[in-house]
Amino acid sequence: MRVFLTGGTGYIGSAVLDALLRSGHRVTALLRDTEKAARLESRGVTTMVGDLGGSKSLTSALQQCDAVIHTAFEGSPRGVEKDREVIETLLAGLKRAEPGSGARPVFIYTSGVWILGNTTKPADEESPVDPAPHVAWRPQHEQRVLDAGENGLRTIVVRPGIVYGGSRGIVSDILKDALNGMMRVIGSGKNRWPTVYARDLGDLYARLLEAPDASGVYHANDETDERVNDIVEAIADHLTQRPDIRHMPLPEARRKLGTYADVLALDQRVRSPRARALGWSPSLSSITANVPRLFEEFRRGRL
Fold first, then answer.
1. Sheet of strand 26-31, all strands in order from the earlier edge strand to the far edge
2. Among 171, 193, 191, 190, which residue's Cα sits nearest to residue 113?
3. CA distance 262 to 251
4. pLDDT per residue as tens digits for the range 195-237
5. Neighbour count for residue 99 (Cβ, 10 Å)
6. N or C: which end of the chain has fewer CB within 10 A?
7. What is the CA radius of gyration of the chain?
8. Nearest CA to 157 among 106, 90, 121?
9. pTM listed for this prediction
10. By C-alpha distance, which of 99, 72, 111 is closest to 154?
């Protein structure tokens, strides 16, 4: 399939790109860095240098695409507004595209499990959303994508857990802090994080792309329900010189991190039955059981 990918050099986007290439798809990737573009082109990827605001150029690039996978998000004051605008641009462009496969064009949107809020019991794709303030805008964007599925498109929303693996992301930041001798935990650390290995997450996107009947919401989570304290302790125990571990009270964390502190303190148990019904099964489960591997990946800077 001919796939247009936003955020192809981002943390999630790069994992998706790797999975698409492993599956033999032809990818056009939108990115902002010309140096990174050259690296992707050496792997057979067609690149388009620009940003999420370039509506005319985006529409033109979609003319010969079978699918769009949107993983990019701009962390700026206009990030939410730009995400809304690019959704509209991508959906409109995809509707006018001429898919070579003859099948319905596919749009896959990247959301996240923080949209669920705290979960008092395991939450699957049918569970109601209760978004933390940090992602209060997400439900509207998800719904716009899902509604577009009634107009000749096959639309999908993926909600990844906290992604781990490689040298980027929240868990890699914890590894870096551990190596620097000081680890900080927001709140008591008794809360559970839903997590997913980056390579497994990329494989789910490829599987969704290739499943002709896949549509709607899909969770991506390894379902291990590990507590933050257990993750931190496993990382600390791996090092010869044990780092200090400091628990930061939530009010203090809010002063420093704003609403981001609250999502890190969410207690969540998330299930992914719809993804597993497609045959998706994470190859790697549990951060605590794979700490040596994660440190190795972190040092190598890649999966």
1. 46-49, 26-31, 2-6, 67-70, 106-110, 154-160, 216-220
2. 193
3. 9
4. 999 999 999 999 999 999 999 999 999 999 999 999 999 999 9
5. 16
6. C
7. 19
8. 106
9. 0.95
10. 99
